Amino acid sequence: MSTWVVQKQMITIFILILTGVYLYKKNHLSNASAKQLSWIIVNITNPITLLCAALAEEEKVSAGEVGIAFFCFVLMFAILIPLAYLIPVLLGVDPGRRYAYRMLAIFGNVGFIGIPFASAVLGTSSLIFVSICGLTFNLVVYTYGEASLRAVAASQHPEDDKTYSFSFKNIINSGTVMAVVTLVVYLADIKVPEMVGNTLSYIGNCTTFLSMIVLGVSVAQMVPREVFTRWRLYVFVVIRQILVPIMFIFILRPFIRNELILHTVIVMVAMPAGNMPLMMAKQYGAKEDMISAGIILTTLSTIITIPAVMYFL
After folding, report:
1. pLDDT above 80 for 133
2. CA 44, chain centre distance (Å)
3. Which residue blocks in the chain are alpha helix, DSSP H?
4. Of 2-6, 56-60, 97-101, 303-307, which range is least confident?
5. All domains of the chain in start order, with CATH
6. Is 0.70 surpassed by the pTM of this model?
7. Upper half-sphere CA count for residue 69 (Cβ side, 13 Å)
């Protein structure tokens, strides 16, 4: 596997992040506008990105293979969530900051990095499985992720006199609705008019740029030592991005005969921390500095961690 594939993605990411830093430093973006952009990303562009993947003209895989892949990704999150509670405890993270490590551990960047990386390394036939990962990701992030961050934001701002309790009504939102629609569209092989498809593509294509811009706003307010002097984040990278994916290899290999599904799942597990928790934290008012630092460090580390994991496949 060529590390240049990874390096090209990293270069692209950091150019976009630096664009956000520049816009903030020049007062073209503010915290208020970044919060508004976060709402657009979380509720509009990100859900439509997933739908666009289902509408793409790719060779269809069998319903059985879709089911196996979906089961694997459900299992992935079922394992990652309890691990996400254990890891910060082992690292001795302050209880008030553990939510950030949980978000970093559970939600990887399966979209912007995952899609082009899987395409380049595993081939375009892997993208349907990446899309299924995105579907599962959305179901989890718009339920567990949203509920967690809204509860954290309420506890961090008691002066707002707001409390948050989970209700199943909260999972009925643009993310989960679009996730279900995506699965139906793909399995039923539904076609849409070209004009509709183009419109959706234009909207979905905004996700990467906007999310990196918002991340850049957070980066612009940080100093380097806030990212690179936190030793716990380095240990976290080793555990979450090397040891955990290798553990998944040994768990799944005896049961998954389809090598493409297995490799796609492992690549998705090995992805660096994703941006969606940051978007939600900013939207709901939870402190996001640790999440921002974790995204930056885990993304930089990918140049080393992904080749290390792929060596075991």
Report:
1. yes
2. 16
3. 3-25, 31-40, 46-55, 63-90, 98-106, 114-122, 127-140, 146-156, 174-188, 194-204, 206-220, 224-228, 231-238, 244-252, 259-269, 276-284, 289-310
4. 2-6
5. 3-310 (1.20.1530.20)
6. yes
7. 27
